[in-house]
Design a protein that fits this description.
The structure holds three protein chains of three kinds. Chain A has one domain. Helix content of chain A is about 70%, strand content about 0%. Chain A has 19 helices and two strands. A two-stranded antiparallel sheet of chain A has the order 1-2. In chain A, strand 1 and strand 2 form a beta hairpin. In chain A, helix 1 packs across helix 7. Chain A is globular. The termini of chain A are far apart. Chain B is an alpha+beta fold. In chain B, about 15% of the residues lie in helices and about 35% in strands. Chain B is built from ten helices and 29 strands. The N and C termini of chain B lie far apart (about 115 Å). In chain B, about 45% of the residues are buried. Chain C is α/β, with parallel strands linked by helices. Chain C has nine helices and 15 strands. The longest helix of chain C has 16 residues. The chains are: A mainly alpha, B alpha+beta, C alpha/beta. Chains in contact: A-B, B-C. Chains B and C meet through strand 1, strand 2, helix 1, helix 4 and strand 8 of B and strand 1, strand 14 and strand 15 of C. Chain C: Pathway: Glycolipid biosynthesis; glycosylphosphatidylinositol-anchor biosynthesis.
Chain lengths: ~425, ~550, ~350
């Protein structure tokens, strides 16, 4: 308990210190942190435009739903200069929710292990979760979230990704226990904000099916989530009085019309794209992140909806049109819950090193390009490519390790067939 | 032997219709406070016909090419200027006709026009053909419709609706002989006779500032103002620098390359005015002796002019200065402005407009910022500071632009305190364009048009404009009014937007797709296949090892 | 004041030489068969000050065709950058073909139809094929028909099989050939004289496959085209060799000349040009030595003034009713009143 207090206290201190230091503006201006979708400056601008009677959706300033805009408006109006503290609070709350999620998830995994114990080989006890993991892993997750520089900067820059992370953490917590209401509500809000989380709906369905053991409830959860989303969109319409916001929010996310650089792959790709091929590539890229892996991964991870959820969160974080480091920080914070399959992962070390290197290089090359004029766009693009590749390796490693770990528990470490050396391959 | 068929058709039109138009030409020469001289040509055609009657094709002096354009596109008022150089308000005072650097067009359409945007696009296309300028590049992405700043200068009969006005500038437009040539062809005497013979391409482009303009508006025909006429004013404004001329003793010949050979017979009057107000400090002697000296008292300030009437014989005017040059203290005009960019790098920048009020009383002004779509401004960062204290605009009209579709416009109504410097500052982001949207010289930069500050001056000091109810320069003599309307144009700004590597498209497409494939491949494998144990078959490496070993062994043997 | 009635006259002169030689009449009919009007498309594709010479090139040809009688309305002049009023030009509003300032090729009466950013491959191909935006003004359209002889002159930086436009895009020889084929199919020309002054110029006309084209290029494939000389006052090369000598030749041509295209094709031998001037005649059906140079560079038609004029005046309209103007109350608007 004491350690928890220290962790949270320290995390809050770091955030508040940075927020009220001179670095805040520099951090908030970084394109790795603030994208057109989540920049707090744009929220302030939209709020100002609303106050002088200009429709914030008539221009390209705001790409979030009207409901969110009104939520931010309330925060801005009621908190005044303490506004950044709301973001700190949300961040800490997210960390706590992740802690609860991890705890529950590890418990679930251990129960499953216990049930399936007779299927597993006895001598592989060390591959399984043990009692100490019950407390340790959730703590790792908390620390990984609270002291992740990505998340700290994201919070200090007051990006709206903070709220998205809060929703996703709530959702993860909900699917650990198969809670219909919390899951549906948090997923609907997250999808309303940034569209891509909508693919998590299969995780919700599977989790309700698994933990509540009722097909009816599972279907109800999906229906309620979708109908909630529809209700949100219609209430947005009534709030704004027009459908103007659709092209500016979901249209904008899908069409990638702003080429401001970020750490994703879209910006330079569509900056350099030939105009007549643009539609083709937009469609293929958006299908890649939403529909393409939806069914295969759902089937693959049907027994572990939480892992499915984590994979989808990682996937959308990597391939969404305007990713920020807040999204990557969130998926990285989830890695400790996969501790049990660490020794089945092959590329995690290389990936982490690549991520650290590119994170350091990116601002340097950005400055060389934009401020000093001695490098060009290719340099920065190169680092973002490497950064994305590293995250892709983590994602594929996680999904691969899951199968491997299963295999390991069932068939052991033996890699021979009739005495001949053999290899574990996909076939 | 030749057989000749000649067919001649005369259309004799009634006399009343024939002579309903008149043409006047004027040249104003004004030595400026420093080493410059300002020359203003004004050619005014007034045609007593109601523009609402569609028959504008039977004209006598009025340019048929223009009347086709205004009828076809339902134009009520048309203002075009093509300018190179920047008018220096601080030392030169106010010009007779204001214009922004580059090309500037603003138009009022008639209030029965249906599709303004289409008409506007078509009109600028026609004008580009008429004046050999790239005005066809004007479309919705760089035009605005300001609410306050551009009221019609001519007469109207209905209520005012600002949705019928369009304004656009092309700050980068170059102005050269190819624009002057078609401009001169709109004159009744072309450039063959009269004052227009002075407009020779070489000398008039060797100036600090040169501006061609066309202003067309409906005006009152009589005192009751129940009949309308069309007024077409074509003017050329030039600022010569004595350093470029090489001497202070100017003459028409030195300024324009030649004197006047003959007057234009179609002109009612053809007059040259030389301002001699400052002749007591920097004395110059005019030859030949002027026909007349005029004193004009306007808004509490009087100025003196020497008047020459152009007759049907060759003439020139020369001024010779006293040897000693007197340097006078420059008293800047009551209202002038600057604009500049702040910030460094290519991520975030700011735009500052500074307005100076030297008058002893507050002045109400309207500031119009015309920003292209690639300057997305953060309006919440708008700060107006006057003499160190923050100020609120009396009115703020912001019409947001849209990416690749519409320009941003911002109009601010301010009351400038007496003797003050007011700065208006806001920030914007640098936009990243697609590689095909950059011009061929992408590193030259992108232009932001001039800010326009409009206001009423209470005094006539430095004021040279023509009153709204007047048509010729002569009508500005002794034209005291309750206030004097000025529009000040600031400098246009160039910003260098960050550029991608233009040679990279294929590389980028390949690399990015490879990264997507890196995710697709493994995920596809994992989701479609299961893990199985397979006997190690000979792979390339082991084959190579075996081969190497065999080589090694054979050598040994 | 004198009252001069407006004269709207349609003057139709039919000029027939009756008796003396019907042969001359036949020859006249033969010569003008198909060919009724002349157009010129003159393109400079280079931007930036150091490409001054390309602007001088294109203006040299402009000056010549205008002097030889093609009106401005039938010349489409495309210039990618402004040299005359460029701040770096020590002599504003002039472009000279020679350091000794013999000829101001820019002149006092010039109409540039496409300038600056408008000079693009797309606009050029659209202009040739006539597929323009509906609102394009007349001066930016190539309104040719099946009786038009067109002079196409291109200058800029090129390579084997392409010509660069503004250093950012290029037109390939195949695109050029296809555009001309489209013109042929749309009956937009009678004959074309294609003239190009660029490096490896001959590669640009090699792909042509439409009939009635005579082509000349300043250099063969594999050769560079060279510039003529530097003007120290301007600091850059001011004209290219081939165009310099072509202009020299054209300056000696008067509108009523007897000189032929064959002579023009011999302009600038290798000792002058350093590069070899390439000529392609296989698509052209006539012998260039029997084609007057004014078939492409001018539009001179012999007109004889007749002394024994017979005037006949027909009064078509004697009076016209003055339209009754409606009176309404107009007012001026005070600026900034809202």
């Amino acid at each position: 308990m004491k350690s928890h207090l220290i962790i949270y206290g320290l995390a809050i201190f770091v955030r508040v210190f940075l927020i009220y230091s001179d670095y805040r503006e520099n951090i908030a201006d970084r394109i790795e942190i603030s994208t057109p979708l989540n920049s707090f400056n744009r929220i302030l601008e939209s709020y100002y435009r609303m106050s002088i009677g200009v429709d914030p959706y008539s221009s390209d300033v705001l790409h979030e739903s009207p409901l969110h805009l009104h939520f931010y408006k309330h925060i801005i109006e009621n908190t005044g200069q303490y506004l950044p503290l709301v973001f700190v609070f949300c961040d800490v709350l997210t960390a706590y929710l992740l802690y609860l999620f991890a705890k529950k998830y590890i418990l679930n995994l251990r129960i499953e292990q216990y049930i399936n114990m007779n299927l597993y080989l006895k001598h592989l006890k060390d591959q399984m979760l043990n009692v100490s993991d019950n407390e340790a892993i959730p703590l790792y997750v908390t620390v990984m979230y609270l002291f992740n520089p990505y998340i700290i900067f994201n919070c200090v820059a007051c990006t709206t990704t903070t709220f998205l992370n809060l929703c996703l953490a709530t959702f993860l917590y909900a699917i650990c226990s198969g809670s219909v209401i919390i899951g549906a509500v948090s997923l609907a809000i997250a999808s309303l904000q940034s569209l891509y989380p909508v693919i998590l709906i299969s995780a919700l369905y599977l989790s309700v099916l698994k933990y509540q053991n009722s097909m009816f409830k599972a279907v109800i959860s999906v229906i309620s989530c979708i109908s909630l989303l529809v209700v949100f969109i219609f209430s947005s319409y009534y709030l704004m009085g027009s459908w103007n916001f659709i092209p500016q929010t979901y249209g904008f996310i899908l069409q990638v019309s702003d080429q401001q650089p970020n750490i994703g792959i879209y910006w330079y790709f569509f900056m350099e794209m030939f105009e007549h091929f643009k539609e083709l590539f937009i469609c293929s890229y958006q299908i890649n992140v939403t529909i393409l892996y939806f069914i295969p991964l759902t089937i693959k991870f049907r027994k572990d909806p939480v892992l499915l959820g984590i994979c989808f969160i990682m996937l959308t974080g990597i391939f969404k049109s305007y990713p920020s480091i807040g999204d990557f920080g969130f998926s990285l914070a989830l890695l400790p819950v996969m501790k049990y399959m660490y020794n089945c992962m092959q590329q995690i070390f290389v990936s982490i090193v690549a991520i650290i290197t590119t994170t350091t290089l990116a601002p340097i090359l950005w400055n060389l390009w934009i401020y000093w004029g001695s490098a060009n766009a290719n340099f920065f693009f190169g680092t973002t490519l490497a950064f994305i590749t590293a995250h892709i390796f983590i994602l594929t490693d996680v999904s691969f390790a899951h199968s491997k770990h299963d295999y390991l528990l069932k068939y052991g470490n033996d890699r021979t067939i009739n005495g001949q050396p053999a290899k574990l391959v996909l076939g | 032997m030749a057989v000749v068929f000649i067919l001649l058709c005369y259309f004799q039109l009634s006399l009343a219709l024939q002579y309903s138009d008149k043409f006047t030409e004027e040249l104003v020469l004004k030595p400026l406070v420093q080493d410059q001289i300002y020359a203003h040509f004004q050619f005014t055609t007034i045609w007593n016909v109601d523009a609402r009657s569609r028959d504008l094709f039977q004209s006598h002096l009025f340019s048929r090419a223009l009347s086709e354009v205004i009828v076809r596109h339902n134009v009520q008022e048309l203002h075009i200027s093509l300018t190179a150089g920047l008018w220096n308000y601080e030392t030169w005072g106010y010009p007779i006709v204001d214009s922004a650097p580059g090309a500037e067009v603003w138009v009022w359409f008639k209030d029965d026009t249906n599709d303004i945007d289409t008409n506007w696009k078509q009109l600028t296309n026609s004008l580009s053909g008429l004046l050999c300028a790239s005005l066809n590049q004007i479309d919705n992405t760089n035009s605005i419709n300001p609410d306050i700043s551009f009221a019609p200068t001519g007469i109207i009969s209905n209520t005012l609706n600002s949705s019928f006005v369009r304004y656009a500038t092309l700050p980068r437009e170059i102005v050269c002989t190819e624009n002057l040539t078609p401009w001169k062809k709109l004159l009744p005497c072309d450039s063959k006779l009269g004052l227009a013979t002075l407009l020779n391409a070489g000398p008039i482009h060797n100036t600090r500032y040169h501006s061609l303009s066309i202003h067309l508006r409906p005006i009152c025909r009589n005192a009751q103002c129940d009949l309308a006429s069309i007024e077409l004013t074509q003017s050329v404004d030039l600022v010569y620098d004595f350093t470029i001329l090489g001497t202070r003793n100017w003459s028409l010949r030195k300024l324009f390359g030649q004197g006047i050979m003959n007057s234009c017979p179609l002109a009612d009057t053809s007059t040259i005015y030389v301002e001699t107000t400052n002749n007591d400090t920097n004395i110059f002697h005019l030859s030949p002796t002027p026909d007349e000296y005029l004193i004009s008292t306007r808004g509490g300030f009087s100025s003196q002019f020497a008047k020459y009437v152009v007759k049907e014989r060759p003439m020139t005017i020369a001024a010779s200065y006293a040897d000693k040059q007197m340097y006078t203290v420059n008293i800047p005009p009551p209202l002038y402005a600057n604009q500049y960019k702040i910030g460094y790098g290519q991520q975030k920048g700011g735009l500052v407009t500074k307005i100076y009020n030297n008058h002893w009383a507050p002045i109400d002004v309207v500031v119009l910022q015309n920003l292209p779509w690639y300057i997305p401004i953060y309006l919440h960062t708008l700060k107006i500071i006057s003499n160190g204290t923050p100020m609120k605009p009396q009115k703020l009209i912001y019409k947001p632009g849209k990416m690749r579709e519409k320009a941003h416009s911002l109009e601010l109504m301010l009351r400038l305190p007496a003797k003050s410097t007011t700065s208006i500052k806001f920030y914007f982001d640098y936009v990243f364009l697609k590689w095909q949207e950059y011009p061929p010289d992408a590193n030259h930069g992108f232009y932001i048009g001039s800010a326009i500050i409009s206001g009423h001056l209470p005094l006539g000091r430095n004021y040279t404009g023509i009153p709204q109810d007047g048509s010729t320069y002569a009508s500005s003599f002794n034209a005291s009014r309750k206030n004097y309307f000025v529009q000040i144009r600031t400098e246009p700004i160039v910003i260098t937007l960050p550029t991608p590597d233009f040679s990279m498209p294929y590389n980028v497409i390949c690399l990015a797709c490879t990264v997507v494939a890196l995710a697709f491949g493994p995920l596809h494998n994992i989701t479609t296949k299961r893990l199985v144990l397979k006997v190690n078959s000979d792979n390339l490496l082991t084959k190579l090892k075996k081969f190497g070993r065999s080589l090694f062994c054979s050598k040994k043997l | 004041m004198m009252i001069i009635p407006a004269l709207y006259s349609i003057l139709l002169i039919l000029y027939v030489k009756c008796d003396s030689d019907t042969k001359a009449l036949e020859r006249f009919a033969e010569n003008s068969k198909g060919h009724t009007n002349n157009w010129a498309v003159l393109v400079d594709t280079s931007r930036f000050w150091f490409n001054y010479r390309h602007v001088a090139n294109v203006l040299s040809i402009y000056r010549s065709v205008k002097r030889l009688g093609i009106p401005d309305s039938q010349i489409i002049l495309m210039i990618a950058d402004d040299m005359a009023c460029n701040p770096r030009n020590p002599r504003p509003a002039t472009v000279f073909n020679n350091a000794k300032q013999h000829i101001n090729v820019y002149g006092d009466d010039v109409e540039v139809d496409y300038r600056g950013y408008e000079v693009t491959v797309e606009n050029f191909v659209r202009l040739l094929t006539g597929r323009l935006q509906p609102n394009t003004p007349r001066s930016k359209q190539l309104l040719t028909d099946e009786g038009s002889n067109i002079l196409i002159y291109l200058t800029g930086h090129g390579g084997d099989g392409f010509l660069k436009f503004q250093d950012s895009e290029e037109i390939t020889s195949q695109e050029m050939a296809d555009a001309i084929e489209q013109m042929w199919q749309k009956q937009r020309y009678n004959e074309i004289f294609f003239m190009i002054d660029t490096c490896q110029a001959a590669s640009m006309y090699e792909r042509f496959y439409s009939p009635n084209i005579l082509a000349v290029g300043s250099s063969l494939v594999g050769e560079d085209s060279l510039s003529h000389h530097v003007d120290p006052a301007i600091g850059v090369y001011i004209i290219d060799r081939y165009t310099f000598y072509a202009l020299e030749f054209l300056e000696s041509v008067a509108p009523n000349t007897k000189r032929t295209m064959g002579e023009f094709l011999q302009v600038c031998p290798k000792r002058d040009c350093i590069s070899t001037v390439g000529v392609r005649k296989d698509l052209f059906r006539r012998n260039p030595f029997q084609v007057p140079i004014t078939d492409f560079f001018g539009s001179f038609r012999p007109v004889k003034l007749l002394k024994n004029i017979h005037n006949e005046t027909i009064n078509v309209i004697t009076s016209i009713e003055e339209p009754v103007e409606t009176r309404s109350s107009f007012r001026y608007v005070e600026p900034l009143s809202f």
